[in-house]
Design brief:
Helices cover about 10% and strands about 35% of the residues. With about 140 residues, the protein is mainly beta.
């Protein structure tokens, strides 16, 4: 078996269980560790994407869905004999449904020391959204 055969077999099996066509092998994406929390005036997302260059990821907001995607490339080339391999490389993607409406124009992303921080301001609550039942 080649070093990646077990990984490819796992992807194939997982796709088969989920109903993907037999013979179809998708590219697995890794999922960066992420914190999503709410403040009084907005939401903050903090994602650990150390080693990813600023131009190698994108942030988008569409209909209340925040998506961060990109790729972390291998840092070394050539043959290596691993004794531990825990750092994920390759494409990644995370999508979050924000629990409350946000102002798309407020999206602000900063990247420092391997952490991507995204801030979004909440939209003011509409008077019709407070659960008032009208007869």
């Amino acid at each position: 078996m080649t070093p990646h055969s077990a990984d490819e077999l796992e992807v194939y099996f997982n796709d088969y269980v989920r109903g993907a066509p037999v013979g179809f092998v998708s590219t697995p994406k890794w999922r960066p560790a992420t914190d999503l929390y709410e403040t009084d005036d907005g939401f903050v997302v903090v994602m650990d994407i150390a080693g990813v260059e600023p131009g190698e990821f994108s942030v988008s907001l569409d209909a209340g869905m925040l998506t961060v995607s990109g790729e972390r490339k291998e840092r070394a080339s050539g043959r290596r004999e691993y004794h531990a391999m825990e750092i994920k490389v390759g494409p990644f993607e995370r999508t979050f449904r924000l629990p409350k409406p946000v102002d798309p124009a407020s999206l602000k992303a900063t990247y420092d020391l391997g952490f991507l921080e995204i801030r979004l301001a909440k939209l003011p609550a509409s008077p019709h959204a407070v659960g008032v039942v009208r007869k």
